[in-house]
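ok, trying the design again with the full structure, not the truncated one.
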């Protein structure tokens, strides 16, 4: 995500938020800087905000240098890099409420998360209207997913009523349920196919064995019913040609 802000018509700021690696990031920051300079005729300060450690890469060093083919530098561009996980949570808790959803991504020990969530709750209740609170908690929910397991996020935010009323949050849950349902269906289909293959292999073994040895006793049928590995069925099918009884067949099946 990219954003632009201004300061008293003296300075234009370009803020760029990054959650993953991008080999061309520094070049893109330079391009934004030049475009904003041309548009506003003001100096531009470029700021790169890294949301998590995985976003660090070649384009996050704070500068880029372009050189001629002979190695001579002809352009140097510098930008500010903010790594959220290096910031203290208080630095954001003391700022505007719009940046509070980023607090859990700062330098936080997990035992401190609940305290921070409680402080965020207090500020949202004091300073934001109901609709904005729902959006802010939804943003918090999504951003925490970049760093924490889903179970931890759900536990910490389980009492946030306003978030649950958010249309965006409900859409996220609906999409998640749909994805989980489809995944469950696929797992079920695969399990069904696997069970079908087992049953077919078991049926063929019983048919071939009955033709060679006669009807299997109940004990033999029970033993065959416990077999699930395809490799075992294959070994028994080969061994069937070399033995003279059900007992001898199963003796070499494991």
């Amino acid at each position: 995500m990219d954003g632009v802000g201004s300061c008293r018509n003296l300075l234009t700021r370009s803020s760029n938020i990054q959650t993953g690696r991008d080999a061309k990031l520094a070049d893109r920051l330079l391009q934004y800087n030049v475009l904003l300079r041309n548009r506003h005729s003001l100096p531009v300060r470029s700021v790169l905000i890294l949301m998590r450690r995985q976003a660090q890469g070649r384009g996050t060093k704070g500068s880029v240098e372009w050189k001629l083919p002979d190695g001579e530098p002809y352009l140097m561009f510098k930008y500010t890099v903010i790594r959220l996980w290096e910031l203290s949570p208080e630095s954001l808790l003391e700022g505007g409420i719009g940046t509070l959803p980023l607090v859990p991504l700062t330098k936080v020990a997990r035992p401190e998360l609940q305290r921070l969530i409680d402080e965020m709750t207090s500020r949202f209740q004091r300073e934001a209207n109901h609709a904005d609170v729902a959006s802010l908690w939804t943003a918090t929910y999504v951003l925490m997913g970049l760093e924490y397991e889903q179970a931890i996020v759900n536990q910490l935010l389980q009492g946030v009523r306003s978030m649950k009323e958010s249309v965006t949050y409900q859409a996220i849950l609906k999409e998640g349920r749909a994805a989980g349902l489809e995944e469950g269906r696929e797992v079920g289909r695969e399990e069904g196919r696997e069970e079908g293959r087992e049953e077919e292999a078991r049926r063929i073994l019983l048919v071939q064995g009955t033709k060679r040895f006669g009807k299997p006793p109940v004990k033999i049928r029970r033993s065959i019913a416990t077999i699930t590995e395809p490799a075992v069925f294959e070994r028994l099918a080969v061994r069937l040609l070399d033995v003279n009884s059900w007992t001898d067949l199963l003796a070499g099946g494991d």
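Keeping the full-length input from now on. The radius of gyration is 31 Å.
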